[in-house]
Amino acid sequence: MKSLVRAALATVVGALVIGLFPTAAAAHSGDQAYVYLNVSTSLLGGQVEYPFGDVERIWGVDLGDDRDANVEAIDSVLPEMLAHVDEHFDIGADGVSWGVEFGDYLFLTDLFDVDGDYVIFPFDVDLPVAEVPQTLEVRFDPFFDEIANRDALLLIANDYNRGVFENEASELVAFEPGSEFQQVDLGESSRWQNFTTSIELGVDHIRTGPDHIFFVFVLLLPSVLVWSGLRWWAVEGF
Questions:
Q1: DSSP string, 97-123
Q2: Rounded Cα–Cα distance for residues 19 and 29 (Å)
Q3: Element holding 51 (H helix, E strand)
Q4: Which of 10, 50, 129, 208 is deepest in the core (most CB within 10 A)?
Q5: DSSP notation for 110-170
């Protein structure tokens, strides 16, 4: 019976140790713009990310560690930046570009503890079809005209139908001068991938929260202990 108790405690302690070291956001290069897509069966959105260095160079603002000062600087050129993002990003299918609506901007350091910072422009796509098609057509070419040897990347951040969630590092498509337009093949959707991804996401949700781990510990107690006579007793069986 003691071995059962030790096994339960070892499980909880191991989960706690893992939870103390959550996966950090993959480092951004600092000299590339990114577009991340969030894909579901009938919804499409994401975010465009511009590095601080390029923003300073193109719009002549000073950006540093002071968030309030950064907000003031970005607000001073925000209309021009939004126009630039809209001009250099298109998404659609079958030769038709879809409407894109951008939300309020934020900074990468608002989300992750990283060294280099980016201005993030979240967006939603006005999808004119009932379901997101498997193949998308994307143009993404920020700063290609202004800065020599510039390229950009597209990544699928979340696509639960295809088993992708919280992806920060695995790029899908690269854009560079001469290949600003790319076809993005999302791949076949799979109910099994959807199921396994949901399980993995649930496990990760538990792993990254100490309060969740202690809840699991409480659930494990009755499997090896029983409360009787104002104390816990080891049970005879599982």
A1: EPEEEE---EEGGGTS--SS-EEEEEE
A2: 27
A3: strand 44-51
A4: 50
A5: GTS--SS-EEEEEEEEE--SSS--SEEEEEE-TTTTTSTT--EEEEEEEEGGGTB-S--S-
Is residue 87 within a helix (H) or strand (E), and if so which, with residue range? helix 67-87
Give the position of tokens 């968030």. 67
pLDDT digits (tens, 9 = 90+) for 23-65: 335 557 788 999 999 999 999 999 999 999 999 999 999 999 9
- Tokens found for residue 134: 């498997």
Q: How many helices (H) does the chain have, and how many strands (E)?
A: 5, 13
Residue type, 145: D
Q: What is the rounded CA–CA span in Å between residue 154 and residue 196?
A: 24
Stated as kind and residue range, the H or E segment containing 93 is strand 89-93
- 70: which 2 tokens? 């950064």
